[in-house]
Amino acid sequence: MSHRRQEKEALRREREKREAEARTARQRKRLVGIGGAAAIAIAAVVLIAVLAGGGDAGGTQGGGDVFPEGGEVSEQSELDIDAAAEAAGCRLEDSRATGVASHTTSLDERVEYRDNPPTNGRHYEIPAEDGLYQEAPPDEALVHTLEHGRVIVWVKPSLPGEARETIRALFDDDDYQMVVVPRRNMPYAVAATAWNGDPAPGGMGRTLGCDAWNNRVVDAIRTFRDEHRSNGPEPVP
Question: Where are the domains of the chain?
Answer without folding.
Answer: 81-228
